[in-house]
Amino acid sequence: MLGDQRGRKQDKYVKDYVVFDLETTGTSSANDAVVEISAIKVLGGKAADTFSTLVNPQRAIPSRASEVNHIYDDMVRDAPVFEKALADFDAFAGSLILVGHNIHTFDMKFIWRDAERYWGRTFANDYIDTLSLARQCLPQLARYRLVDLASYYQIPTDGAHRALADCAMNQKVFEKLGEELASPAVAANMKVCPRCGQFLKKRSGKFGEFWGCSGYPACRYTENA
User: I need a labelling partner for 97 at 20 to 30 A (CA). Which of 40, 115, 122, 216 fits?
Assistant: First the structure.
């Protein structure tokens, strides 16, 4: 859903959402380009529709990127450019909350950047990052890659690092994290910012411990510990 302001990060579970994933030519949201975008629309906690397309990045795909995502130049030669693919994704997602793994620091930056570049507007959809949820719900884990979470929940990881396969994996992980959030044991140790919906973290200041929003500095909410 295009708008004038970027959507806000939320730390919660919802039943209706679009889980999405990008594959790119590299890790820089300033310089790299998208080569694949996929998504699954979920209604009532169940997969209802899918969207997936390769993208012509209008440049050569570095070999190091192809080694990870197995997408090569000949595969994207006749694919749509990202302006078309992103418009189709926008129509598919509508106003639903977006869900993805590590999207706060990666995927959202690409779609915000390119929406602003193409149309002078941005994605206004609020979004949920399963990486943030997992770190709060599963503090005992040593690693929080999507494949690590899938293995923890005994979810198959076949096809990892292709966008649609990662979406399917992440959708199952998100549903499991929703169960974690609903459990009294987990909920008792979590606090959510009443202003922006992100987790509160216990911090120390010159007057002692306090709860501060994890969305700082965008959100400066605090409360006494």
Answer: 216
**What is the side-by-side strand order in the sheet with 17-24?**
9-10, 127-129, 97-100, 17-24, 34-43, 46-54
Q: What is the pLDDT of residues 86-105, one digit of tens each?
A: 999 999 999 999 999 999 99
Residue 111: partners with Cβ closer than 8 Å, 6 or more residues away: 22, 86, 89, 123
Q: Which helix or strand (DSSP H or E) is residue 94 part of? A: none
Q: Which two tokens stand for residue 188?
A: 């008792």
Q: Counting Cβ atoms within 10 Å, is residue 40 exposed (0-12), middle (13-18) or buried (19+)?
A: buried
Sign for the CA dihedral angle at 194, 195, 199, 202 comes to negative
List the one residue out of 214, 216, 217 whose CA is nearest residue 198. 214
Q: Which residues pair with 20 in a beta bridge?
A: 39
Condensed to tens digits (0 to 9), the pLDDT of residues 36-84 reads 999 999 999 999 999 999 999 999 999 999 999 999 999 999 999 999 9
